[in-house]
Design goal:
Helix content is about 50%, strand content about 10%. By secondary structure, the chain is of the alpha/beta class.
């Protein structure tokens, strides 16, 4: 009997907790204290169709302004699809617990069926059905940032839509509103249904020109920066462009806090430059660790945080950061040890409970993960990351109905989290409910059109329902997106066998084995294909190898 693999198991646990709410205390609100300030600025101008004038200037100018404010900034210009996706993924991985993170994008954008997409420079789609596969889904960025544990996420999109890319940053009408969780601020260059000026006669797009001016003003809160920008753009555009924001931020953040300096007179010395956003004070070794971890050098970060702990054994933040760095290099037991140390000091530390629970999950120790996540949910009934991780643990223990309940709660509160829909689809399939599994995979694909695993598992579900042409089409797409995945080739080979095409099936099984020579099920399936083609000796050799690898 041939087997179709579930292409990917349930998506791995989140590595950090939600710490985004900026709670306003009584009286004056001090600047938000961030662990680190990180940013990515993208400017796409060199399109094959309808190039733009200013996005590269815009991204570079925003990068300079943010660096002046103390942000660690990466700048990407004229990015094709691969470069855009890789750069965003790298940025999301840099964002950690307690950070303030800014993502800025200038270029073309598309709205398709209520979803927003950032357009890479190699975009060449001619209609909506192909466009969503050739552009980057903004909700994927939003999901990654919200799951990062950042204190505040700021997304700035100087883009909209106006088909066919004629002189504005858009395709056909305007980007849609974006769902966002606590601690997320989203700014658009214009209101829904409208286009944004590229301002080809100036050095910057109209929105970015006035945003840069507003960022230079001290003492403005996050909301005030964008309110001021809105007024200036509205006036300069003769009331044709109105920047638009949506926010779930509680409290205040200042890009440039007001300076507490005396009034400058003709004879006095100039006052110092306005201060930058406040960062949490830490010793030098801790700061080095933060720099290394945000730069992707987890091993160096471990060394720096270890030194910080030696200098101050009571520095629980250093323990947390070292635990996260241990997890990043796969040393999950050491991560668990550090999280446990924090919990000995503070048993109700939500971040440590989620971090330890996630580390247990990576160890496949699901039974020990659940109590930690239960404690988080008891204290914070709206903590979606804890529900998401607990669902993974329940599924690992074959408690699929409990997993389904947790995923259902997450999808209700975070309907744009593609990974929650994908994982819930796998859980439905494990319960034998292929119809609902198909529906969930389809939502995940709509939210993230490059989601290869969702295509593959939807293909598997179609095959199990006997819908072989649909299964073949989905697996073809999955392989186009992930051509190095052995399991996908194996599954498509099974479908081809069911479609009475052993010759093409044999090619897929050969490729699956080339990609993963230890995939026992592929040898079993290749034996069936060889037998159907009359190659008994080859079939017997494959059956023998499959048994050696634990197959049938």
């Amino acid at each position: 009997m041939r087997r179709i693999l579930l292409i990917l198991a349930i998506l791995g646990a989140a590595a950090s907790a939600q710490e985004r709410s900026l709670i306003q205390q009584g009286g004056a609100v001090p600047p938000v204290q961030a662990r680190s300030l990180v940013a990515l600025a993208v400017g796409n101008a060199g399109y094959r169709m309808s190039p733009l004038t200013n996005p590269v200037n815009d991204a570079q100018a925003i990068s300079g302004a943010l660096r002046d404010l103390g942000f660690s900034v990466e700048t990407i210009v004229d990015a094709d699809y691969r470069q855009l996706g890789t750069g965003i993924d790298r940025f999301v991985h840099r964002v950690r617990r307690g950070d303030v993170a800014v993502f800025y994008y200038a270029g073309h954008g598309i709205q398709i069926e209520g979803e927003n997409f950032l357009v890479p420079t190699d975009f060449d789609a001619r209609d909506e059905s192909s466009a969503k596969y050739a552009a980057y889904p903004a909700d994927r960025l939003l999901e990654g940032m919200e799951r990062s544990g950042a204190k505040l996420n700021i997304i700035i999109l100087d883009a909209c839509r106006n088909n066919p890319f004629r002189g504005s940053r858009a395709m056909s009408g305007g980007l849609a509103p974006m769902g966002s969780g606590a601690g997320t601020f989203v700014a658009f260059a214009t209101s829904p249904g409208k286009t944004a000026s590229d301002n080809s006669k100036g050095a910057n797009g109209l929105f970015t020109q006035y945003l840069l001016e507003s960022l230079r003003q001290p003492g403005l809160t996050l909301d005030e920066v964008f309110n001021r920008t809105r007024e200036l753009v509205y006036t300069a555009s003769k009331q044709s462009q109105i920047p638009w924001t949506q926010t779930n931020v509680i409290g205040k953040f200042y890009f440039r806090p007001a300076a507490n300096a005396p009034t400058v007179t003709a004879s006095s010395r100039p006052s110092p430059a306005p201060p930058k956003p406040a960062l949490i004070a830490a010793n030098r070794a801790y700061r080095e660790g933060v720099t290394e971890s945000r730069g992707g050098n987890a091993a160096n970060a471990v060394e720096a945080f270890t030194k910080a702990i030696q200098e101050n054994p009571e520095d629980m933040e250093a323990y947390h950061e070292r635990a996260m760095s241990f997890a990043a290099v796969g040393q999950f037991q050491r991560a668990i040890d550090d999280f446990t140390r924090i919990l000995q000091r503070n048993p109700s530390d939500t971040n440590a409970l989620i971090g330890r629970g996630a580390s247990y999950i990576r160890f496949n120790d699901y039974a020990r993960a659940i109590p930690d996540l239960d404690r988080v949910i008891q204290r914070e009934p709206d903590n979606d990351i804890a529900y998401f991780d607990r669902a993974i643990a329940h599924a690992g223990l074959d408690q699929n109905q409990k997993a389904l309940d947790d995923y259902t709660r997450v999808t209700a509160h975070r309907p744009k989290w593609s990974s929650a829909w994908y994982n819930r689809g796998i859980t439905h399939a494990a319960l034998g409910d292929l119809k609902n599994a198909l529906d969930d995979y389809s939502v995940a694909i709509r939210l993230r059109p490059d989601y290869a695993a969702a295509y593959a598992n939807r293909g598997v579900a179609y095959a199990e329902l006997g819908k072989l042409p649909e299964a073949r089409a989905d697996l073809d797409q999955a392989i186009r997106l992930e051509p190095a995945d052995a399991a996908m080739f194996n599954s498509r080979g099974v479908v081809l066998m069911q479609m009475k095409n052993p010759s093409q099936a044999l090619e897929d099984f050969n490729e699956a084995i080339r990609l993963n020579s230890l995939l026992g099920v592929a040898y079993s399936n290749r034996a069936d294909a060889r037998l159907a083609l009359g190659d008994r000796a080859g079939a017997q050799a494959d059956q023998k190898r499959a048994r050696e690898l634990g197959g049938r």
